Each structure stands twice: as C-alpha cells, then as structure tokens.
Amino acid sequence: MSSPSFDNSYVRLPDRFFARVDPAIPPAPSLLALNRRLASELGLDLDWLEGAEGGDFLAGRLIVPGSEPIAAAYAGHQFANFVPQLGDGRAVLLGEVIDRQGRRRDIQLKGAGRTPFSRGGDGRAALGPVLREYLVSEAMAALGIPTTRSLAASLTGETIERETSQPGAVLVRVASSHIRVGTFQYFAARQDRDAIRALADHVIARHYPSAAEAEQPYAALLEAVVAAQAELLARWMLVGFIHGVMNTDNMAIAGETIDYGPCAFLDAYDPSTVFSSIDRDGRYAFGNQPQIALWDLTRFAETLLQLLGDTPDDAIAVAETALATFKPRFAAAHGNGMRRKFGFASSRDDDADLANTILAAMQSNQVDYTLFFRRLSQAIETGGADEPVRELFVDPTAADEVLHLWRGRLASERQSAVEISHMMNSVNPAYIPRNHRVEAVIRAALDGNLGPFEELRGVLSEPFHARQQFVAFEQPPLEHERVRATFCGT
Ligand code: AMP
Ligand code: MG
C-alpha cells in the first residue's frame, strides 16, 4: 500500500506564481464519495486510498511525502470587470501525478481553508456545491466532454455559514492543470514579461507540445487554445450545458470545463436561459456562451502580445488571425455535432438552416432539448411513432412540421433506420444532471441521506444507455419541481 507519487512541475516555476500553504486540518473528516475508476486511471493505490491514511489524505488532514501544497496566483475579469488579484482562495494544489497514460494531472483540494488569496472569504466549501460539482463534472466526463474531474468528496466535520448553516465539505479535483486565462492576466497586469514567457513555455511543454515545433510557437499556442475552446464550447452547446460564470479566471488553458458553480443544463430549449442568481443581466446566458468564450480568449491573446511580434502592429495582426479561427472552428464542430444529433451521416450545405429552423420551433414550443432528440430517434425505430415527439410541443402541429422537415432530409441518407437511431442515441444523452434532480440530491444529503446522490451518480455514469428502471430520470421537471436559480454557494 502506498501514497500517490507526486511529480510537481508548477512549483518549479518562479516563487511569485504561487504561495506555499498547507490545507486546513479538518476536525472530523468523513469520506462521502470516492471515484474508484478515476483513482485507478490516475494509478493511485485503491487499498491505500480506502484506508485510514487515504481518507485523511483526501480530506487534507495528511500531507504525504512528495506533496508540495500551494495556492496559485491568478487574476481575472469577473462579469467583464478586471480584478488584478484573485488566486486560489479556497483551493490548495497538493501536487501533480503522472497517470497510467502518461498524462500529468493536478490533484487539488477545494474547500481546504484560507490561503493568502482568500481576500474576505473563509476558504471553505459547503456540502451542496461540492456535491453539485462532483455530479456535474463526472456527468460531463461520462458525456465525453473535456472537464476537470472529481476524485472524492468528504465532510470536514465543521459547520460553515452561508445563507444558512451548512456542513463543510472538501472536493478533490483533478485537472490537466489549473492554469487559467486569469493566470496569464495576473502577470500581464504586473507587466511581468519574464513570467508570461515562463508560463507560456510551461503551458506549451505541458499541454500543447506540438506548438514548440511551429515556426512561431506562441502564435501556435494561442491558436491551439482557441481551437480547444471552440471545440469545448461546441460540446457544451450540443448537450445544453450552461456554465454560468464564464469569467476569465474560470477558463482553463488546457481546454477543460472548470469551476462548476451555478452551472446547470437546459430543460426546455431557450438560448436566453440563465440559472445563476448572480448573473442579473444574462451575460452568461446559454446562447451567449460562444461569444463570451471568444471575449475571454481575446483577453488571453492580449496577455501574449509581447510574444507574438516584434512590433505592436505585428503582434496584433497575429493575435487577430488566431482569434479569427474561433468562429469557423466553433461553427464546424457545432454543425457536425448537430448533424449527428439529427442522425445525418452526410453533410449538406443547408443543414445549418434546417437545424436553426427546428431549434426555433423548439424554442417557441418550450420543447425539452434532451428528450426531443431521444424521442426523435424512436420516431425512426418504430417507423413513425410521432406522438411522443408531438407531446413535447406546446402546439403539436408544430411538431408535425418539424418531423416533416426532418424526414425529408433523412431521405437523402443511405443508412438504415436502425443505424441512424443507433448513431443518434450514441450522441444524444438520455440522462443529464437536471437541475431539479441535483437539488433534490443535495436536499437529501443535507438531511444525512446520500442514497439519492449514489443513485444519480450511477444514472449519470452511462448517459447514453437508457435503462427502464431509471425512466423517471429522463423527465424534465414538473412545474412545481422546477428550480430556476442556482447559487455559487461560495
Ligand atoms: P469562483 O467564483 O469559485 O470562480 O471564485 C472566484 C474567486 O473567489 C477565486 O479567487 C476563489 O478562490 C475565491 N473564492 C470563492 N469562494 C471563496 C471562499 N469561500 N473563500 C475564499 N475565497 C473564495
Ligand atoms: Mg473560479
């Protein structure tokens, strides 16, 4: 039995990149959830993790040899306002491990107490948000979407004060790295050119090694980050994910979804959907997400200007060229994804128009985004089971129109009905972490009942595999079950 073998590259960067800080010692930790599959992917010793030492390690009570705990410095635009110093205010990076596939992964405790970056905060995390992040991040991973992961969640044995008193908890988060757009902004704001270069070199070596071979490595880095985010945003939009706080400090340079705060999934299709209680103007509404990502990437490009050209004009031209690739890349990824959602293996020029027409009908008829695509595939399987699709529309005749358009387009496909529905069901999830379900799990957990958490976690682990006993989990909320607002809970 052995503790994790750490190999920490971030602490080899200059001292001003982080503060060394130990996690707070939780008075009475107890393990709520352990992600065994992820643990073995990381090459961790399960017997050790499940033992007493492992439990202490996962809650921040035991610092194992090789772990060099730090809080990272970063800045960020929060709702478009620049804050020159944010940083890990309630998270401590324990170190990095090399996983079974040779990939470097950060292991971080979130909710591990105050750090030099805590500002006014208590450095703690409440049970509700920890369970939300655990469920939603793991659901995203099961959907095949790049994301930070959740290795474990523990109660700390403390009570913390939020809107109400809540049990304190700590999440063990795993990421390709925790380097954010805001990490670059921290140094740009201080005109620390050496730090920007060192950070860019670190990121190239760690995440985008092929950029090192390019004629202009830093331009290649920017292009690679733009490409990763364009792909990521397309994936979000295809499953109806709303991040909720796309501040620049919440955009990971590695292209993973990070910082699950007030995130939620669409039920009815509507681009103006906002759940986050702090997003009063709808800046981070579902339909705004791609353009916000580009806004954040533009802030990233600004931090790199000194590396992109010998004169400011040259540098700006290089940055603009790279940023200009976002829209076509997003459109291509989203368009291809939409085609698969509709069951089209081939590609036609008017597919985007068709998708937009159908989405518009879904919006005006308050159609559940996720259920629609599952039922659509059933409408092929049984050779015309239209009723389940029609039921989703406020005006069922609008569904007839949609089905007519869709079948017209399907007629130009060569594949069999079985093949088409198979493809559709492999990209259209039956199960997403619907907000009312997540809230119900949290309410039960606050009453000491983790059964619903375990059940939902199991349901979401195979999102494309519909199982008869879980049919209720496919359903959108009834009117009285609807949860309209989510909170960061920080
Ligand atoms: P977030 O909204 O989680 O992206 O966090 C934004 C910033 O606030 C980050 O610098 C966090 O570390 C910090 N922060 C959030 N919650 C707390 C807390 N409870 N105590 C200290 N800092 C916090
Ligand atoms: Mg954040």
Protein described:
The protein has 490 residues and is α+β, with helices and mostly antiparallel strands. Among the domains are: 10-178, no CATH class; 182-333, no CATH class. Helix content is 43%, strand content 13%. It contains 17 helices and twelve strands. The chain has helices spanning 36-41, 46-50, 52-59, 127-142, 181-189, 193-206, 217-239, 289-308, 312-323, 326-342, 351-364, 369-381, 387-390, 396-410, 417-427, 435-446, 451-460; strands at residues 18-20, 30-34, 70-72, 76-78, 81-83, 91-98, 104-110, 125-126, 149-161, 165-175, 241-242, 264-265. Strands 2, 6, 7, 8, 9 and 10 form a six-stranded antiparallel sheet that branches. It has a two-stranded antiparallel ribbon with strand order 1-3. Strand 9 and strand 10 (165-175) form a beta hairpin. Helix 4 runs parallel beside helix 17 (451-460) and helix 12 (369-381) packs antiparallel against helix 15. It is globular. It starts with 17 loop residues before the first strand and ends in a 30-residue tail after the last helix. The model has no long low-confidence stretch (mean pLDDT 96). The structure holds adenosine monophosphate and magnesium ion. Residues 86-90, 117-118, 121-124, 245, 249-250, 259, 261, 488, 490 line the site of adenosine monophosphate.
